[in-house]
Amino acid sequence: MLLWERSTSFFSAKFFLPFPFRLRREDDVRSLNKSVCLRTMSCFPIVLDSFKLLSEEKEQRKEVLMSGRGLSSIHHAFIRRKGVSSSSEIMNSYLAPPRRGGLRPSTN
Q: For the whole model, what pTM was predicted?
């Protein structure tokens, strides 16, 4: 517990967090590490919410794909692009962050 308290005080000082501030989960510490935006107090709550929403959205998309619901519409959307041929490639493309220039042809 002492280590946790030291880490919260370190992050509070480093990112100028308002006092008293408590990090609720270890994920919050990881989120703090990921964003330069946290150096300003004004955007701090927004950044944490963004990380939370992005991870929840990715999990929901993964569940839909794994359960088979919506797979056909995703398949049809991606199959029209050149280089996408397998369902696993389609799933990986859907879960991955968007790339500039669209999907690249498979190198398999």
A: 0.19
